[in-house]
Amino acid sequence: MPQFLRVAEFDIWQPGYAGAIVEIIVAGTTTLASVYTDPLLSVPAANPQVLGTFTDGSGRTYGRFPNPIYVGVPYQVIINDEGATGIQQVPLASLAAADVSLATVTSVRPGGVVRSLRSVLDDTISALNFGPLVFGSPSNNTTVLTLAIAAAAADGGGVVGVPKGIFDVTALSLPQGVRLRGAGRGTTELRSTQGQAVVTMAGANAGLEDLTLNGVNAVTNSVGIRAINKANLALRNVAVSSFATGLHISGGDGVAFEELHVSACTRGAYLVGELLPGQGGAALRSLEWRGGSVASCINAGLVVEGVDAEAQNLVFEQVYFDANAADAVTITGGRSIMFPSCFWRGNLGNLRIEDGANPVNKAVNTSRSVRVLGGRMDGGEIRFNGECRAVVFDNTELLGVSLIASVPAEPIIFRDCFENAAVQQTGAVERLARIKSNRRGRFRLTTTNNTATAAWQIEVPPGDAVRIRADLVGRRMNGTDNASGAVEGVVTRPGAALDFSSASTTLTAGSTVTGATSGATAKIIAVTQTGAAGTVTLRDVAGTFQTGESLVFSGGPTAVAASAIVTSNATLAISAAGVAASLGSYAVAVDASGALARVMITGATGHTVEWEMMVDFLMAGLR
Known about the structure:
Layout: E1 5-6, E2 14-15, E3 21-26, E4 35-36, E5 49-50, E6 52-55, E7 61-64, E8 70-71, E9 75-79, E10 104-105, E11 115-116, H1 117-121, E12 124-126, H2 138-154, E13 158-161, E14 165-168, E15 172-174, E16 178-181, E17 188-191, E18 197-201, E19 207-214, E20 223-228, E21 234-241, E22 245-250, E23 252-263, E24 267-273, E25 284-295, E26 300-306, E27 311-322, E28 327-332, E29 334-340, E30 343-345, E31 349-354, H3 362-365, E32 368-373, E33 376-378, E34 381-386, E35 389-394, E36 397-399, E37 402-408, E38 412-415, E39 418-419, E40 424-427, E41 432-435, E42 440-447, E43 452-459, E44 465-476, E45 482-492, E46 496-501, E47 512-515, E48 521-530, E49 533-542, E50 550-553, E51 558-561, E52 571-577, E53 587-593, E54 596-602, E55 609-619
Parallel strand pairs: 12-13, 13-16, 14-17, 15-18, 16-19, 17-19, 18-20, 19-21, 20-22, 21-23, 22-24, 23-25, 24-26, 25-27, 26-28, 27-29, 27-30, 28-31, 29-32, 30-33, 31-34, 32-35, 33-36, 34-37, 35-38, 36-39, 37-40, 38-41
Antiparallel strand pairs: 1-8, 2-7, 3-5, 3-9, 4-8, 6-7, 10-11, 42-55, 43-54, 44-45, 44-55, 45-52, 46-49, 46-51, 47-48, 47-50, 48-49, 50-51, 53-54
């Protein structure tokens, strides 16, 4: 539909204009405009128009257009040759050929600021405004991007938009407040094969978003992202791949990474506190890396180091460390570092904690206060060397991990961690301390007769033993009796028995067995074998072995499960009343029932006694 405007001055009866002659002219001229009786501007009407006449009951006369009148241009009205009215503009329906850059707009949100359209459009400066980006043309692409970055910097900072595609570049520098934003990680790719830093963060508040940096062949001395003591750097939804060093951050404060993925680099991420005389280095503080991964790096994945300045208060949350050929994470002189909900899998080394080699910098290059919170490590090594003050693993799942305590000066704490039977430990293992919050607790019980009642119990797995100590005090509610005492006991349970046949060789104790179908696992503590058949005695059983499934033993032997697994009841090995027992008419004891170890309290007939009991226990197989 064409642009139109209804000439509304005489759409209704207007007093005093009966029979008036109305000329409709093109605004600002004396030319009669083309007028029509329909909004499609297809049925011409007369111009001038002679108004119709109407007289009311009091004799007053009125004038009106005989039909609605439409016009397609700005217009003015002249009535009876007495001069033109004001200009009426046709509503704007197209911006074709119009410059509205200085028109002002405002947000509908409360407190919206009035801004020019030009400033709104420049929130993101399109690199394409400065020339084409061409595949395979690093010089051209670097020039275009540099011009766009300079324009953003001239505005005091802003976002430079890069379209989807693969664009070769040489090197780029991001001044203060400038961020390079692509069309998506894996959708926009900046590629460089130069032996230098591809993106240098030259100012605070600079960053990258929604793109991939690709070094292609990990050229010697190539660095994906380089920054020296820059505050508030930001990387969001960025992939950095195939550089000698993926990113090298020397000092800074308030650094934020979100969904940062580093892969296939010789050294993935090097986050370091270093002074760099003449270059303005500094301590690295308050860095947060949330989401993302470090994968398939050759010599090192993530390295945190305090060289001659602190690297401290760093958080790595929900980062996935996968298939790194060396140590996925190395901390050399890091302070106050946390790994909440991170996952390690397929790495030669998961985590190495050590001190820096230079004793002059001991104040900043000793590793302290490292916490792994939750998450999982599947296979690989964890190495501890040096001071290792306040190193804690809390509620972390350790599956088949090798714990290597070289020379840790202080205990390494594993609090409420799960360790499967395949976890191994070597070196100064006395420094590897386990704390189980569920191995100690207070319990209450009321007895009203002389029946032995279980006040506390725990299941003893096959092949395991539990040592229990219970301290208790009782007060009688319907008499003056009080009682206190202690008891200790050890309950053991024989290992589970699994018959086998078709063994490929002689089986040995100390190896592990896995059900090929069920996935069940266990440690072998004894073997009785005649020819290719026999029975293995197991502990640390996880899962349910199936009759007839293939069995795979560590070291390579195989066999077939000839029956379901058979377990035995627990038995009381040692029981002794503690010292200073003054139970009087009452009794406490440790006993075994089925698979359970229990603390039993026996009251007295007619006595209502409230008992408060503290239980401590140790069980080697409690994971």
